[in-house]
């Protein structure tokens, strides 16, 4: 007769501590719903550079065994979050619900959106708000300029902190130890011939941002694109977020960014700071 696993301390059996060994051999403690953690790891692996994945891709990116990755992917298909063509898994619109839960309840995004829209109309360029998340700058609000070719990333997009204007602004409020910890989350590589991709150079750039009060990424992420960002501070003086504008460098020079765009971004930051 098949035995039934009894709940532990009034909880389901899944909540007992165990160990899980991923495909890399790294041991992870499991507390509570380990299956949920694995599924979320796969969801977070999707992004601008990973719009679809195989079972092998998911196992590698989420640090899971192939059987565990396959079970998670098929569960997400059953729940309507992913589509499967027999080989590749791709996100479906239902995935948007996960991000909207944060965006719809964050007072910061609600306060920022009309300010970003006003700045976009004044500058005729896309203006965004970003926060830090494990080595990435994540865009939580954005007012997009209407152009044939769009600039920058979309709402919910992520950029590595080491070479993005928003990322360096967000790093500038941290201690040197904290900066190195964030830089370690994302392997640094040269995306263009202008990218700063070593810890010493990035640290010096972040220190200049702290002194200047703004950051400029000039064709470090992609040739032909530049961005400027300024910090949004909370009431205690810590950096809560970064406001940025992204432009085509052939249309807007660095000098114009400093002369025309910087005052507008600083004005948004001050208004957001007063609301925090």
Report on the structure:
The chain is an alpha+beta fold. The chain folds into two domains: about 15-95, Winged helix-like DNA-binding domain superfamily/Winged helix DNA-binding domain (Arc Repressor Mutant, subunit A), CATH 1.10.10; about 105-275, 2-Layer Sandwich (Beta-Lactamase). It has nine helices and ten strands. It has a six-stranded antiparallel sheet with strand order 7-6-5-10-9-8. A two-stranded antiparallel sheet has the order 1-2. Strands 3-4 form a two-stranded antiparallel sheet. A hairpin with a 5-residue loop joins strand 1 (about 20) and strand 2 (about 25-30). Helix 1 crosses helix 3, helix 2 crosses helix 3 (about 65-80) and helix 5 runs antiparallel to helix 9. It is globular, with a radius of gyration of 21 Å. The relative contact order is 0.09. Residues about 1-30 have low confidence and may be disordered. This is IclR family transcriptional regulator C-terminal domain-containing protein.
Low-confidence stretches: 1-30
Strand count, sense and barrel status of the largest sheet are:
6 strands, antiparallel
Order of strands in the sheet with most strands: 7-6-5-10-9-8
Rg:
21 Å
For this structure, what is the CATH homologous superfamily of the largest domain? GAF domain
> Structural class, from secondary structure content?
alpha+beta
**Total number of β-strand segments?**
10
Secondary-structure arrangement, i.e. CATH architecture of the largest domain: 2-Layer Sandwich
CATH class of the largest domain: Alpha Beta
Into which percentage range does the β-strand content fall? 15-25%
